[in-house]
Write a structure and sequence with these properties.
Layout lengths: L8 E4 L5 H12 L3 E6 L3 H13 L4 E5 L5 H15 L3 E6 L15 H22 L3 E10 L3 H4 L6 H20 L6 E7 L5 H6 L2 H10 L8 H12 L10 E4 L7
Parallel strand pairs: 1-2, 1-4, 2-3, 4-5, 5-6, 6-7
Helix pairs in contact: 1-2, 1-9, 3-4, 4-6
Length: about 250
């Protein structure tokens, strides 16, 4: 991977499994010390940390609900305490569909929950991290193909929240430019993860995968590779952008 992250400190939200785990491991492989945040996946987060340490890296697992401001403040402070201050890289990966519901099936509480886990979390963690972040740092947000095409059935709330992540990414790129902090996003399509194991029928996955230009689902490593690129100096002239990771399923 990109070998310019030595002595960097990275925080990855939702880093215990699937895409978050792959990102944390790739960042560590490139030399960064990594805080692996989790909400409830303690076993998976500790396994991610163990993998990084076994490979010669440095990592720590920190529990926090990133939709709660008090938890977020503690998460960032513990990251800096455990791995060092400043923080150089933030990856806002935490998120989820929660459930597939059409508009008439949603209540206000469901809508608020989806927005909190996918969009509010990006606001809270970014705001809390900025006082600790080095000038010239990098923020990478996880959006989704759903932000572009409205998502699959019953995912309007999720798609809307991820659209908000795209817009916030562009706004932050402008706002943080005086500090040379770059802000980009990645927008995965159909990726082989627990997300789709839970919410997407196998037949639908097979049909969608067959429509991609490469003829397969993506893997978590495909997303992690792009995230590490955006976190590194290899992408020094890329800012406010979204890298679409969907195998050619959707062209903008």
């Amino acid at each position: 991977m990109y070998g310019d992250l030595k002595d960097k400190v990275a925080l990855v939200t939702g880093g215990g499994r699937d895409i978050g785990r792959a990102i944390a491991c790739k960042l560590a492989e490139s030399g960064a010390s990594v805080a692996v945040n989790y909400r409830s996946s303690k076993k998976e987060a500790e396994a991610t940390v163990a993998t990084i340490v076994e490979r010669g890296g440095q990592a720590v697992a920190i529990q926090a609900d990133v939709s709660r401001s008090d938890d977020v403040e503690r998460l960032v402070a513990e990251t800096a305490s455990a791995l060092g201050n400043p923080i150089h890289i933030l990856v806002n990966n935490a998120g989820g569909l929660i459930a597939r519901k059409k508009v008439l099936e949603m209540d206000e509480a469901f809508w608020d929950e989806v927005m909190a886990v996918n969009l509010k979390s990006v606001f809270l963690v970014t705001k809390a991290t900025l006082p600790y972040m080095a000038d010239g740092g990098a923020i990478v947000n996880l959006s989704s193909l759903a932000a572009r095409d409205g998502g699959g059935g019953g995912s309007i709330a999720y798609a809307a929240s991820k659209g908000g992540v795209l817009t916030m990414t562009r706004g932050l790129a402008k706002e943080l430019s005086p500090r040379s902090i770059r802000v980009n996003s990645v927008s995965p399509g159909l990726i082989n993860t627990t997300f789709h194991d839970t919410f997407t029928p196998d037949a639908v996955r097979e049909t969608v995968a067959a429509k991609t230009a490469v003829g397969r689902e993506g893997e978590a490593a495909d997303v992690a590779n792009a995230v590490v690129f955006l976190a590194s100096e290899a992408s020094a002239y890329i800012n406010g952008e979204s890298v679409e990771i969907n195998g050619g399923l959707y062209f903008i």
